Amino acid sequence: MAERFGNDDVAYHEAGHCVVAHALGATVKRSTIIPEEAFGLPGLSEYAFDDMPTSRRARRQVVAFLGGQAASDLRLGNSDRRSASMNDLIQRHQGPHPVEAGVSEGGSDFKQARVAAERHLGDVAHWTDLLLRARWVAERIVVRPECHARLEAIAAALHLKGHLDTQGIAALLA
């Protein structure tokens, strides 16, 4: 039997980033399941939104960062959990930036989303609204039949191989 990397949940989460980023026009460069959660990160996906105005790119990055959790929640099929996780997320991210306030960020996807938004959009006064809209878009993408099929294919390949490069991901997204 072939060795498997990580678990299905991590593979599905990372596949969510890839599928959402691709649907929004990004080039997906790689996706990896990190053995033994080095640095506290079980996986990593890299993508780039090129040739796009800065504000549009930043908004799409926020959606892509939330694509992993949208895919994970889809896999669990539990809308109550999804609502609870969003409520918790909103509470953690209201007010001053959590790092400035000395509060733990929680998931790195959400930290990256906020940092990207603030870097390119300025101090987002309505961070909660941006986050909810981005999450809604990510959820709509992962449930599309063509995107869901790609999500399943990438997750299965990641779970089996542990790493996909640009060509491997492009073949599964085609």
Which helices and strands appear, and what pairs or packs with what?
Elements lengths: L7 H16 L3 E7 L9 E6 L5 H23 L2 H15 L4 H4 L6 H14 L5 H17 L1 H17 L1 E3 H8 L1
Antiparallel strand pairs: 1-2, 1-3
Helix pairs in contact: 1-2, 1-7, 2-5, 2-6
In short:
It contains eight helices and three strands. By secondary structure, the protein is mainly alpha-helical. It has a single domain (8-173), classed as Methane Monooxygenase Hydroxylase, Chain G, domain 1.
Give an overview in words.
This protein has 174 residues and is mainly alpha-helical. It has one domain (8-173): Methane Monooxygenase Hydroxylase, Chain G, domain 1, CATH 1.20.58. It has helices at 8-23, 54-76, 79-93, 98-101, 108-121, 127-143, 145-161, 166-173; strands at residues 27-33, 43-48, 163-165. It has a three-stranded antiparallel β-sheet. The longest helix has 23 residues, at 54-76. Residues 1-5 and 95-106 have low confidence and may be disordered.
Structural class comes to mainly alpha
Task: Please give the CATH class.
Answer: Mainly Alpha
Number of helices: 8
Residue stretches low in confidence (pLDDT < 50, at least 5 long) are 1-5, 95-106
Strand order in the largest sheet: 2-1-3
What profile does the largest beta sheet have?
3 strands, antiparallel
